[in-house]
Design brief:
About 0% of the residues lie in helices and about 25% in strands. It is built from one helix and 28 strands.
Length: about 375
């Protein structure tokens, strides 16, 4: 049974509503922690005070020190992150769209998997849009790595490296078990399932990953579905404290047209995840819908933040077949903040979701703030 396709009647149990404070903006000193520095999310009693920029020889930085995520007793504190330099040991450059051989993506991942330290994978396949069609599943990512497709020549904001799974009967796009990895600037589509795969990106076991700037489930033009059979992005198996999206257009994932939910967080203790600034169920311009076949965002892990108060943090979740945002019964202490549910990217056009805007399924201590639902119920009872 796919947990992201639930249609269970729900109960909005808002115990303690208003007890938790909002999420303040990222301190200005953290703005220098780029290009791999997601926004800090700070809860009550969990200040984030980075001490300025990292050394010049350590340009790749990520907030990767969450408080313990195993317990649900301290809701927002579990989202706090301290900036920790990500030291890049080796760089592997992808120079061909061939499936195998020197310079291929497959070879680069295999090489990075031999190194316990974090590696960087860059792209220089001619220039402009390039499509990689694996004939067999890409290697599981078992060691920390930064996959940065924004390095492809010609990149100007729209992804140029397409990972097309249409040659395989069943596979996932990127399966990451390592944790502390980044996937940035890809088009990931057409991954199929014979019953157990078909996810665009699957985060499994390993934690503190960053997923930013990808189009998942769309064609290379960003205009229509090129569906992955399962979820666009799935978080399974105890993978915690991941960041999906960000507060800038460059960090935004567009997760649309997938066969199941756009973003799914479930199966195991998958707490402390942050989903912010994404477009889920829209085309790449935000002007129309490309529905996901399940929920827009499904979350069944505790202490998660969907949206935020920092400008650009809100997700836009529209056009999906099931409720735009579905909060499962194990998603205690979740904050849903600053999202637009059922609108276009301007917030002025009513696009709806095909079922409710936001559903709560018996989860405890859910905090709403500033989320707008258009043509859909805010939550059902």
């Amino acid at each position: 049974m796919n947990p992201f396709a639930a249609r269970t009647p729900v109960l909005a149990f808002l115990a303690g509503f208003g007890v938790l404070a909002g999420v303040p903006a990222l301190p200005a000193t953290a703005a220098t922690l780029l290009p791999y520095a997601p926004d800090a999310c700070v809860g009550v009693g969990a200040p984030n005070q980075p001490d300025g920029a990292p050394p010049a020889e350590q340009p790749y930085v990520r907030h990767v020190r969450p408080a313990a995520v195993a317990a649900a007793a301290l809701p927002l504190e579990l989202l706090s992150r301290d900036p920790t330099p990500l030291r890049i040991a080796n760089t592997y450059d992808v120079t061909t769209n061939a499936d195998t051989g020197a310079g291929s993506l497959r070879a680069a991942i295999a090489s990075a998997n031999t190194d316990a330290a974090a590696d960087l994978i860059t792209f220089h396949i001619g220039s402009g849009l390039q499509t990689i069609r694996p004939a067999t599943a890409l290697p599981t990512i078992t060691q920390p790595v930064v996959l940065d497709a924004t390095t492809q020549p010609g990149y100007a904001g729209s992804p140029l490296i397409e990972i097309d799974g249409s040659l395989m009967p069943e596979a996932n796009g990127f399966l990451i078990t390592a944790g502390s990895s980044t996937v940035k600037g890809f088009i990931i589509n057409r991954f199929r399932s014979a019953g157990g795969a078909g996810f665009g990106i699957l985060l499994d076991v390993g934690s503190t990953n960053v997923i930013q700037g990808n189009w998942i489930g769309l064609n290379a033009a960003g205009t229509a579905a090129a569906a992955n059979a399962g979820n666009g992005i799935a978080v399974f198996g105890g993978s915690t404290a991941n960041l999906i999206g960000g507060t800038t257009a460059a960090a935004r994932n567009v997760v649309s047209g997938n066969g199941s939910s756009g973003i799914g967080i479930a199966l195991g203790n998958v707490g402390g995840n942050i989903v912010r600034g994404n477009w889920v169920g829209l085309n790449a311009t935000g002007s129309g819908v490309v529905p996901n076949g399940g929920n827009g965002i499904f979350s069944d892990g505790p202490n998660c933040l969907i949206g935020g108060t920092t400008p650009g943090s809100g997700n836009i979740v529209s056009g999906n077949v099931l409720p735009g945002i579905f909060i499962g019964r194990d998603a205690s202490a979740t904050i849903i903040q600053g999202n637009w549910v059922g609108t276009d990217a301007t917030g002025t056009v009513d696009l709806g979701n095909q079922e409710n805007g936001i559903n709560l399924d018996q989860a405890v201590l859910i905090v709403f703030s500033g989320s707008v639902a258009s043509r859909s119920a805010a939550f059902t009872t």
